[in-house]
Design goal:
Elements lengths: L3 E2 L1 H7 L11 H13 L9 H25 L15 E2 H9 L3 H6 L2 H12 L6
Antiparallel strand pairs: 1-2
Amino acid sequence: MLFRLAVCAAALTCAPAAFAQDMNAQELYERATKLKKKGPLALLSSDVGVLKKEIQGAAAASKAQYEADKKAGRQTRYCPPKGGQSMTSDELMAELAAIPEAERRRINSQEFMTRVIAKKSPCRSA
């Protein structure tokens, strides 16, 4: 899994139809772990595209929720930097692994991405 995941940039390029997440965080973790074990051969797997689309859709949905909250005057869960940010697949896997399995089973990929973005871009108190 050598691809980079451009979290905020990907959110800007995904169509609204891509927002639907089909995986919970546990399924995402299991599929990504299987791919990682394949090493460089993982790039030949169709699962790379599936997982990349899932993450991009989750990031786009998270960004859409952020924008809706901001527009409505509600408190946002994170405060992204101007210009966005990126994350490697290894960083993403570490974040997934840090969540207990029972919790990964309860949350979808959008909630996972929102948590990751919030951790990387917390809102600072004035």
